[in-house]
Design brief:
The protein has one domain (about 35-160): Ferritin (Up-down Bundle). Helices cover about 70% and strands about 0% of the residues. It contains 6 helices and no strands.
Length: about 180
Amino acid sequence: MRSTMTKPREPGTVSRHENERDENGNVKDQPGVRGAPGVIHALDQALALANQAVLRCKWQYGAALRHHSPQFAAAALGHANQARIHAGRIVDRIAALGGEPEPFTGADTMRRHSAQRHGKSLAEIIAAELAEARYTIQGYRKIAAYLAEEDQGSAAMMEGIAAGEETCASELSDVLAEQPEHAQ
């Protein structure tokens, strides 16, 4: 586990709470000055959400193929690619703030997720995945709200990521609406 503890600062240096900010209120990237640990931790949480979304989308893609649904497969593949891009942006932001991303340990959660979905109809699978996507969006928005006070650049990035997730959820909703067992 990585430590967010910093060495005691020398007189005349900038503390992590006194980081210089640019005209947008973002912490300036400075050699040797770490971002606030709370910001890094919040971004690590966002990264975990993005990584979970990637794994969920991979599972969705497999389910779509098993159920012979090219429309669901295309939506899942597009969402997986988008989630990978989101994860990359979050990793880049953590690095820019002087942090190191926490390793993702969500594989066990995804195995349970897969077992819970086994044997359900395609409409039930899509509905459950849509609920998961909405939970992820809510998580991103909470993180963005927290970051708004700490680092406006990170907050804006998280709002953009949440908006991207909204688009993916909208596509899932469209796929769900076209399922015969859901339209009844």
